[in-house]
Give the backbone structure.
Amino acid sequence: MTCLRWINLVLAIVATLPPLAHLLELPNKVALDGPMWLAVQQHLYRGWGPLLSAPAEIGALATSLVLLVVRRASDETRRLTLLAVLSYAAMIGTFFVLNAPVNEALSRWTPASLPNDWESYRLRWETGHAIAALLSGVGLVSLIRARFIEAMTSRQDVV
């Protein structure tokens, strides 16, 4: 169980880092012109999803689901873990609704074929990552809080 908790927390931390990085760079990215924004999207972020984000997000969701079963006896830790599960599920859903369609569209664009409404795509992509940052933060804080409650409860049981 201790190993599962640590794996879960590590995955939760790693799942939080990419959307948080996107959120922190948002003010600078909205200042980019279309061709520069497209270059950043097509080159800088290549490989992030399949190599880092997706495995961490799916892993955080899966290990949180297992912890939800393990923590079924404690109302407080179960509720916090359920909140984490819902946050990671919503985070993954947000990706498919907001980010994936933009990624698909811009994979076919060139600076010459950039559509006139490219800024609406940028807004959708950035909004998706801002929501993901919020949801991953909620998930991480919920899991950390549940772990602290477990630690405090086990100390009280010893005394």
